[in-house]
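Q: Got a minute? One more chain.
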Amino acid sequence: MPIPVNIEQLLSATSIEGARIEYKKGWNPDAIYRSICAFANDFDNSGGGYIIIGVQEQNGRPMRPVKGLELNEIEPIEKDMIGFNNLIQPAYYPHTSLEDVDGKKVLVIWIPGGTNRPYKVPDEVTSKHKRYNYYIRYNSSSIIAKGEFEKELLELTNQIPFDDRANMQASLKDISRTLVRDFLIKTGSRLADSIEESRFSDILQQMDIVAGRFFNYPYQALEEAVVNSLYHRDYQMREPVEITIEPDCIRIISYGGPDRSIKLDDLNRGVAHARRYRNRKLGDFLKELDLTEGKATGIPTIIKEMKANGSPAASFETDDARTYFIVTFPIHPVFVQNEPQNEPQNEPQNEPQNTVSVTLRQDEILRLIKADGRITRAQMSGQLKISEATIKREIKYLREHGILRYDGPTKSGKWIVNTDIDIVVHL
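A: Always. Here it is, folded:
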């Protein structure tokens, strides 16, 4: 998403001091993340800084025309940043924007002063063995905060400049969209082009106006769940790990379920301790890759990260036979999509919008039921080549969402599909 200043202003340093801008010819994550940490600590309260990748400098000034980045370089950089951002302690996420300059692409990283300083980062984010340090800006360089500098930085903990402090009594309604638009137009920011089409909250987040930074789903929680699903799954079962992305949640399913020594209530409280692990060798590999930390840390991390992001709590589900394990991540409430009402409504809308999303597998089950309402779970399992436990779980979802119901006695009744509901299939 675009940044709230014009790229030419950054390159000419007309509105941003030169010491707050770094130019990088190419992608050097070790040096770049030391500078990101330094700008985030904002030691002199100057407002953070910018790093422009794809621009060579000479005597502190950008060389024109810019070198630029090749298109096949950009996506790997963005993927790298997702992982490297999570190495910063405490969590910090800079803004990025891909800009056109001199017919080339450059990547701008905007690092506003953080609200949870002091921040530290590994000296080399690409190194297997990471040594953390606090970094600050000293003139135009990023240096380790030592001695008096470190002491002063630590004293800045929770000291936020007045104009950066959150007003907890304010809401988005107190911010004028018109004034924001006028500001973006005057500064020449590309954000002005998207202010009408984008959600206002997204624009304000990109401008670093709204307090706090939150996401539809916290990366750390999803990473922990995906790693755990691969670490703890039963590889003697042929069912693969399933990750389903729906409009209001992400669901991760692995087979089989957790160890029988773990109670579901303990899982939801985040105090689960397994007596044994299925895949010890795989666990060693994951630890070597820093993808898992140790015993009994996965569930507490998921719970902690969801809470820190302001998201609803994740839910955990299994069956008595422990044949599967489901982790469901609800989307952050701010990202719940509401259909805009562009047309005036002449008549009251008394009926709810009955639209439910289903997976391709759930749609296959509905197709079988429509063909034969008396089909059994065992027959569905045989035709779709999946376990009865999976059929049971999918039917549970369909029943809970009002798509499917069972009519009549257990042995002689039949399944009925609710035709009043519009079904959207997500591949």
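A: The chain is about 30% helix and 20% strand.
Q: Perfect, thanks.
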